[in-house]
Amino acid sequence: MIAFRGKVIDSSIILPYIANVCGGIPEMKLITITDIAKKLGIAPSTVSRALRDHPDISEETKNRVKKLVRDSRYTPNAISDSLRNRRTTNIGVIIPEIAHD
After folding, report:
1. Quick one: which of 30, 66, 74, 93 has the most CB atoms within 10 Å?
2. Whole-model pTM?
3. Domains and CATH numbers, the chain
4. Is 86 left (phi over 0), alpha (psi -120 to 50) or beta?
């Protein structure tokens, strides 16, 4: 169990997210859209569109993709999202001096 933002969360839920954001934990293989596409026998672009509820993707395909995503604990890569959106949620803090008294 991990305390996160004042709540206790099961570590099996938050660890894949942390691993994806931090670039991975050596023992953990991160699941990618390409991995999901290979398992379902569809194109990675179809997986991406299904996750974003694109109207050109059938409901059956959307449901198959979403079920596999849920079962594999896929989390979107935060760096990829920030590159695509040209925006991050990071805040930089500059501290001019730290005094150790």
Report:
1. 74
2. 0.57
3. 1-30 (no CATH), 31-76 (1.10.260.40)
4. left
